[in-house]
Specification:
Blueprint: H1 15-19, E1 38-45, E2 54-57, H2 68-72, E3 75-77, E4 80-84, E5 90-93, H3 95-108, H4 116-129, E6 141-150, E7 162-172, E8 182-187, H5 211-219, E9 224-228, E10 236-239, E11 243-248, E12 251-254, H6 265-276, E13 280-283, H7 288-293, E14 296-301, E15 305-314, E16 317-320, H8 328-340, E17 351-353
Parallel strand pairs: 8-9, 8-15, 12-13
Antiparallel strand pairs: 1-2, 1-7, 3-6, 4-5, 4-6, 5-17, 6-7, 9-10, 11-12, 11-14, 14-15, 15-16
Helix pairs in contact: 3-4
The structure holds 2-OXO-4-methylpentanoic acid (COI).
Keywords: Amino-acid biosynthesis, Aminotransferase, Branched-chain amino acid biosynthesis, Pyridoxal phosphate, Transferase
Organism: Camelina sativa
Catalytic activity: L-leucine + 2-oxoglutarate = 4-methyl-2-oxopentanoate + L-glutamate; L-valine + 2-oxoglutarate = 3-methyl-2-oxobutanoate + L-glutamate; L-isoleucine + 2-oxoglutarate = (S)-3-methyl-2-oxopentanoate + L-glutamate
């Protein structure tokens, strides 16, 4: 259940602080929609450029039954987060990376994207308009969901004559509720993406095909599903919503972004942080056999952040991995979250302060 507005005051906030916060049970945040006050909407019509965009009250949108997104799935989404720091600033984590990824996805789906500058500016405006919904420091983040969707009516298969760039937000906590590591099931039956397809962009259509596997795995008590490559069925690719890494010795390995997995921004960040502390990071095909022999396995994503994998089940094998205080995953998680929440100053330009 998503946390909802509460009737009594939170004992954790003084009345002055309460004024700057929406009425949310911050300690109970999950990864579930808590509607906020405003959203951003800009429109593009074939032959024109994107409209300036405006902040409007959050709510349902009206759309043609013949819209490109509804009929042919012409749509992309992004996910990024805003954080409130202990010293009262509101920051974004690498928003320009999402802006650039949307450019690439839009090209693949034949849509005109907003410029990277418009994207980042729109994200800032949306977060500032909803600043009451940015959780207190350490209680979660404001998840930002930009959409670029074909909203124009199109009956034959073609690019829609109108696109909508829309951004909405929701305060969120952890993606997976359990504080322990994930128990993954390897799906050897369904494939998530294939060479030349759209697995490498954040197309809306990449996500409903994972539902069948996910529902089956969850009903058997697993936390998530790991997909194999469609070409050989021998290499690991991606978890339903995030990227995967394995550790063996001093080498951290992750599947390459050659078109079938999402080029995750957290994936890129964690690779850099692991290199910074002396690990060799390899982006290469990783076989299922190597996965089963790894010392640690962990996954990364904006929603997921970084989560250790406790066990992987494949056929009749159930492998347990190192997790906990001494694990590399714990160290990298701390390095990342300390940067994101402003506990540690970041000299790589990853945090964008939008409060000043
Ligand atoms: C994200 O991590 O932002 C994602 O896009 C995952 C989402 C499908 C929940």
């Amino acid at each position: 259940m998503a946390p909802c507005a509460h009737s009594s005051s939170s004992p954790l906030l003084t009345s002055k602080e309460e004024e700057k916060y929406a009425d949310v049970k911050w300690d109970e945040l999950e990864f579930a929609l808590v509607p906020t006050d405003y959203m951003y909407v800009a429109k593009y019509k074939q032959g024109e450029s994107f409209s300036e965009g405006e902040i409007v009250p959050y709510g349902d949108i009206s759309i043609s039954p013949c819209a490109g997104i509804l009929n042919y799935g012409q749509g992309l989404f992004e996910g990024l987060k805003a954080y409130r720091t202990e010293d009262g600033r509101i920051t974004l984590f690498r928003p320009e990376e999402n802006a650039l990824r949307m450019q690439i996805g839009a090209d693949r789906l034949c849509m005109t994207p907003p410029s990277p500058d418009q994207f980042v500016e729109a994200v800032k405006q949306t977060v500032l308009a909803n600043n009451k919904w940015v959780p207190p420091p350490g209680k979660g983040a404001l998840y930002i969901r930009p959409l670029l969707i074909g909203t124009g009516a199109i009956l034959g298969v073609a690019s829609a004559p109108e696109y909508t760039f829309l951004i909405y937000t929701s305060p969120v906590g952890n993606y997976h509720k359990a504080s322990s590591g994930l128990n993954l099931k390897v799906d050897d039956k369904h494939r998530r993406a294939h060479s030349g397809g759209t697995g490498g962009v954040k197309s809306c259509t990449n996500y409903s095909p994972v539902l069948k596997s996910l529902v089956e795995a969850k009903s058997s008590g697993f936390s998530d599903v790991l997909f194999l490559d469609a070409a050989t069925g021998k290499n690991i690719e991606e978890i339903s919503t995030c990227n995967i890494f394995i550790l063996k010795g001093n080498i951290v390995s992750t599947p390459p972004t050659s078109g079938t997995i999402l080029p995750g921004i957290t994936r890129k960040t964690i690779s850099e942080l692991a290199r910074d502390i002396g690990y060799q990071v390899q982006e290469r095909d990783v076989s299922i056999d190597e996965l089963l022999e790894a010392e640690e396995v962990f996954c990364t994503g904006t929603a997921m952040v970084l989560k250790a994998v406790d066990t992987v089940t494949f056929d009749d094998k159930n492998i347990k991995y190192k997790t906990g205080e001494e694990a590399l995953s714990t160290k990298l998680h701390l390095m990342l979250t300390n940067i994101q929440t402003g506990v540690v100053e970041n000299n790589k330009g990853w945090m964008v302060d939008i409060s000043s």
